[in-house]
Amino acid sequence: MKRQLLLYFVIGVFCVSIAAQKITKPTLTPTEPTEPQKSLIEEGIKLHDAKKYGEAIKKYQQVLQENPDCTLALYELSLTYFNNADYQNALETAFKGTRYKSKELSLFYGIIANVWDDKGKPEDAIKLYQDGIKMLKDEEGYENHVSSLYYNLGVTYTRQKKYPEAREVLKNAVEYNFGYASPNYLLAEVFYGTKYKVPALLAAARLISLELNSQRTNRSVTIFLDILKSAKKDEKTGNINIFLDFNAPKDEGDFAMYDLILGTLTTVKSEKDKNKSEEEVFAEAVDSLIAMLGEDKKLPKTFVGKNYIPFLVEMKKNGYSKIFAYLVLQQSGNKAAEKWLLDNRKKSLEFLDWAKSYRAAK
């Protein structure tokens, strides 16, 4: 009975400790680790990866004894506590980290939210992200942190299957940091799963331009190719069958016309196209789609119109649309596309550098 009461007491203290702490605006300045301290942190990370958490913690604590304002060591320490299921110390360390104006700031929020998620308190995690966003969104220099907070909030909403809420916060994440791959990927998935075909294709395109040779890239390529795939022909009549979804959402734009066109871009060929390779036809289809989207006067007021379409239009203007198309095919395993990219290596690398540095106009 005494042990049971003690357990209830420990649980109660833990819950009170969580509730008692609140995030505040970061005011402290972190101190970069010295080279020997960096070495200790790297040793700790290797020990962490080997699941030798106790030894890793000692390395980080050694750094913090010498340099208590080292946010890198604070973050790695809180992460190791978290992975070792020492949630109380993970929280205390992460909350300490949120007081610093550091590049690890959003990571500390993530640790705290993950603890609350693991403790069955997703609403507390949501409130944490919302409070962080409210506190930092108007602060100059915190754009990347705000983007990360919006993204993590989107992850939480997606897990709860709150897709309208997830779409909105993920769009905010993209707008705060257009070069951040993660929200573009998750937004492609959410758009795709909620019948936003063209927006899903555009979000997937942005991910592909930012990240190669990953599971997320493969999935984004699958989404892109599925939406742009050739319409099926009736074996008896030879007619092309196109199925329209009249219930498709329109808040990102009315894409009904594109539903009619998408399936024909890689299907309908004139006499002059009969000697072109499938890769060339696909590249021309991508180029034609970008041209049509860029000329659609109704889209600039929407999220995709303000963010994804200008990116693609600029890509086409700079002569990169063919490279992008071949990159999509190469990432799907097309060997002919891979050879073409190698033959045009200089221009391909130029495109990748441009895509990563591109920033949407405010």
Would you write up a description of this structure?
Helix 2 (35-49) runs parallel beside helix 4, helix 5 runs antiparallel to helix 6 and helix 6 runs parallel beside helix 8 (143-159). This protein has 362 residues and is mainly α. It has helices at residues 2-20, 35-49, 53-66, 71-83, 87-97, 105-118, 122-136, 143-159, 163-176, 181-193, 197-210, 215-227, 256-265, 278-295, 303-306, 308-317, 321-331, 335-343, 345-357; strands at 232-233, 240-241. The protein is elongated. Residues 1-20 have low confidence and may be disordered. The termini are far apart. It has two domains: 17-120, Alpha Horseshoe (Serine Threonine Protein Phosphatase 5, Tetratricopeptide repeat); 178-362, no CATH class. The protein has a two-stranded antiparallel ribbon. Helix content is 68%, strand content 1%. The relative contact order is 0.06.
Query: How much helical structure, as a percent, in the residues?
Result: 55-70%
Outline? elongated
According to DSSP, the number of beta strands is 2
Read across the widest sheet, the strand sequence of neighbours is: 1-2
Rg for CA atoms: 25 Å
State the order of secondary-structure elements, H for helix, E for strand: HHHHHHHHHHHHEEHHHHHHH
The percent range for strand residues is: under 5%
